[in-house]
From TrEMBL:
Keywords: Signal. It comes from Corallococcus exiguus. This is DUF6310 domain-containing protein. Residues 141-176 are annotated as: Disordered. It holds the Pfam family DUF6310. The keyword Zinc does not apply. The keyword Chloroplast does not apply. Residues 181-304 form the DUF6310 domain.
Length: 306
């Protein structure tokens, strides 16, 4: 991993000095995340592109460093046609020419040859479709450009307060209906809604651990309910507080299967709207069980008690 990072750092420097084709530069300046998604869509990924979607906002060499392990390298041939990877870095040679070639700011013609037909990863396709949808109707794009949030906050500041806010408590935003675009699909604008159910320990963990931008509230994004939107960052959370380590083995397996269905739905919605997605669990055993079936998950042990 240390060699991968050294190679990625070298390629970031090279990318700053490289001269790219005008069309590529224009796309990158306009939306680097979309450029990375389109570039990655031409490659085969073993995880459907979930890692790529999660890291798409990073510079391309960093994305390759993070997601290289999920690349279906059995279907790719790498050729160092420029000789840069052979002579530029001993670290690149040590970790393999493939990583260096793929992470280059511009992939030379014939440098990467994919065997067979590439089917665009599900997660990548959904993220690109969501981007096209949001920009087809920019006036309804919600937080894709932040215009609606800014206007709402400005309007809230202009309105006189009818009541003094209780000391020591965060203001709770109103709960509007879920916004939709012209096609009837839910938008990416985060909409706070009351916590589902009355599980106090669970709700307390969701409010305090990330911490939650909307205490006392879940949040709807892309039509999907999440337990929390973390303060200060575009990161959505699913919180689990049950004592997974006390379950019998067969119950644990069934629970993981059920959770993965929910997690996949939430992660896809979060990625399509440009959010990171984290699962918070109470125990290390629960985290290990989730990572065992899907190592690309971002799982954090909260230690929240029931």
């Amino acid at each position: 991993m240390r060699r991968l990072r050294a190679c990625a750092a070298l390629l970031l420097v090279l990318s700053a000095c490289a001269t790219s084709a005008p069309s590529w530069n224009e796309l990158t300046v306009r939306n680097p995340r979309l450029a990375n998604l389109q570039r990655a869509a031409e490659l085969p990924w073993t995880d459907g592109g979930r890692c790529v979607v999660r890291e798409a906002a990073q510079p391309w060499p960093v994305l390759v460093e993070k997601c290289y392990r999920t690349l279906d390298r059995d279907r790719i041939e790498f050729h160092d046609t420029t000789g840069r990877c052979t002579v530029a870095s001993a670290d690149a040679a040590a970790v393999g020419i493939g990583f260096c070639v793929l992470a280059a700011p511009e992939i030379a013609v014939g440098a990467v040859i994919v065997l067979g037909v590439v089917v665009v990863g599900v997660a990548i396709k959904e993220a690109m479709d969501a981007y096209e949808l949001r920009h087809a109707y920019p006036e309804e794009a919600g937080t894709s450009r932040g215009t609606k949030v800014a206007s709402r906050e400005a309007e809230a500041q202009r309105k006189p307060k009818l009541k003094p806010e209780p000391a020591g408590q965060d203001w709770q935003p109103p709960v509007p209906p879920v916004p939709v675009d012209r096609t009837g699909r839910a938008s990416c604008e985060p909409v706070p809604v009351p916590h589902a159910g009355e599980d106090d320990p669970h709700n307390e963990c969701a409010d305090k651990f990330p911490p939650n931008r909307y205490p006392g509230m879940d949040v709807l994004v892309g039509g999907v309910r999440f337990d929390a939107l973390q303060v200060g960052v575009r990161k959505l959370w699913e919180i689990k507080t049950h004592r997974f380590d006390t379950y019998p083995g067969f119950i644990q397996r069934r629970e993981i299967e059920r959770e993965l269905e929910q997690i996949q739905k939430e992660r896809t919605a979060a990625a399509a709207c440009g959010y990171d997605f984290v699962i918070g669990v109470s125990t290390q055993e629960h985290k290990d069980a989730l990572i065992e079936v899907d190592f690309s998950l971002d799982v954090v042990v909260t230690g929240c008690k029931r």
